[in-house]
TrEMBL record:
InterPro entries cross-referenced by the UniProt entry: DnaJ, DnaJ_C, DnaJ_domain, HSP40/DnaJ_pept-bd, HSP_DnaJ_Cys-rich_dom, HSP_DnaJ_Cys-rich_dom_sf, J_dom_sf
UniProt CXXCXGXG motif repeat ranges: 149-156, 166-173, 192-199, 206-213
Cited function: Participates actively in the response to hyperosmotic and heat shock by preventing the aggregation of stress-denatured proteins and by disaggregating proteins, also in an autonomous, DnaK-independent fashion. Unfolded proteins bind initially to DnaJ; upon interaction with the DnaJ-bound protein, DnaK hydrolyzes its bound ATP, resulting in the formation of a stable complex. GrpE releases ADP from DnaK; ATP binding to DnaK triggers the release of the substrate protein, thus completing the reaction cycle.
Domain notes: The J domain is necessary and sufficient to stimulate DnaK ATPase activity. Zinc center 1 plays an important role in the autonomous, DnaK-independent chaperone activity of DnaJ. Zinc center 2 is essential for interaction with DnaK and for DnaJ activity.
Subunit structure: Homodimer.
Main localization category: cytoplasm
List of residues binding Zn(2+) 1: 149, 152, 206, 209
UniProt similarity note: Belongs to the DnaJ family.
Organism: Cyanobacterium stanieri (strain ATCC 29140 / PCC 7202)
Name recorded for this polypeptide: Chaperone protein DnaJ
Cofactor binding, per record: Binds 2 Zn(2+) ions per monomer.
Gene this chain is encoded by: dnaJ
Amino acid sequence: MSGDYYQILGVSRDATKQEIKRAYRQKARKYHPDVNKEPGAEETFKEINRAYEVLSEPETKARYDRFGEAGVSGAGAGASGFDPNDMGGFADIFETFFGGGFGGGATATGARRRGPARGDDLRLDLKLKFREAVFGGEKEIKIPHLETCQVCNGTGAKKGSGVKTCPTCNGAGQVRRATRTPFGSFAQVTVCPTCNGEGQIIEEKCESCGGQGRKQQNKKLKITIPAGVDNGTRLRVTGEGDAGTRGGPSGDLYVYLTVENDTQFRRDGNNIHSEITISYLQAILGCRLKVATIDGDEEISISAGLQPGTVITLRDKGVPKLGNSVSRGDQLITVHVEIPTKINSEERELLEKLAQIKGDHTSKGGFEGFLDSIFHKK
């Protein structure tokens, strides 16, 4: 590929600067030596870069249109008239491949740094007791975060002092450095090391915050825990993150919740599981007894002949639905039946009489078989 610069880029002579730039990026991406390993790609890339450096600037473009190559000899990449502040050519290539770390992209970044900046968001991990997660409520927490310095009102400057233009970058917030490569020269833009991209420096720093405009403080907060939260629930507390800089808003605080296990209850979604153990006589004859719920003790009825492993459901005794505390899950109670391993003589006598009435055969130490027949005989 060689010849007319317009043909090299594939644009017409009346193409706009934006059209020229767009065509250049497409060609450069295709023929860049790091991407295209075909023979001649490197030489083509140089021609594309040369064509763009000439046509991207109105003055050199006008000379080229009038006099051709002779009118721009000595201009462009590698020439003695190269301006290190020129952000065309390789700066655009790096912007294309690496996301704007060079040229105009860095300039825009530097400008944004000097405006108000939002503070960082913070995270706090909070552990709740089982019942706190079920019913919610108010919780006091303590967080370390950056607050705006009250002495300097966030300016970072000592009272009576002010700020001045950074002498290193002359207020630009960034510095440029020309670098020569086998493919030509390009300007690398970096954040000014003196002012950290602010463009200004403080004449005398605030003694309270050391010129930062913010101070680390421990703050107590009361937050509301909604009913029905669970492990992994995230609560957002607006404006309680780090304070912003240069008048920017504060970040937010995110509270991540974990819930402790309970000795009596196990949660499954909005349902609660628990277990009780009754005697074999209670299972045979039936009874009424009190059981624990998260709302307190409640009396339930055990039907006569209840089988081991039966699950009793208590409606609306589970966990409130998150965001709708009126709706609740259920409590599921698994009933276990205790079979004694030893009985006294009076108990044995009575059980043997019962076995005779039922016509069951028993032997010494074998009353457990009799009880098994009661609970499992069809």
